[in-house]
Amino acid sequence: MFKYPLVEQDGYCASVSAQRIPGGRWKSWVGLERDSDFARLKNGATTPLPVPNSAPSEATAIEAAYAYARMLISREVAKIKVFS
């Protein structure tokens, strides 16, 4: 599994990784943490969430993972605004 640069946005931090799966496609995952958990995330201790679809290339899988990470962060920020 390959790891890529972190995404930091709105107080959240997301790690992205990808792996080639049988059949030649690529699957990616996103690990999401908030605030003081950033240090734990950077050590790889978070449980990653799978990106819904596989992709034909590594680049496409990583693009999808970054988009998914931004979408997850947006959802979390929206939840906080609703409860604030």
Give descriptors for this structure.
33% strand, 2 helices, 4-stranded antiparallel sheet, 4 strands, 84 residues, alpha+beta, elongated
Rg measurement, Å = 13 Å
Proportion of β residues? 25-35%
Number of helices: 2
Determine the mean pLDDT.
85
Layout: helices, strands, pairs:
Layout: E1 2-9, E2 12-20, E3 26-34, H1 38-42, E4 49-50, H2 58-83
Antiparallel strand pairs: 1-2, 2-3, 3-4
Outline the structure in words.
The protein is 37% helix and 33% strand. With 84 residues, it is an alpha+beta fold. It has a four-stranded antiparallel sheet with strand order 1-2-3-4. Strand 2 (12-20) and strand 3 form a beta hairpin. It is elongated. The model has no long low-confidence stretch (mean pLDDT 85).
Summarize the structure.
The chain is of the alpha+beta class.
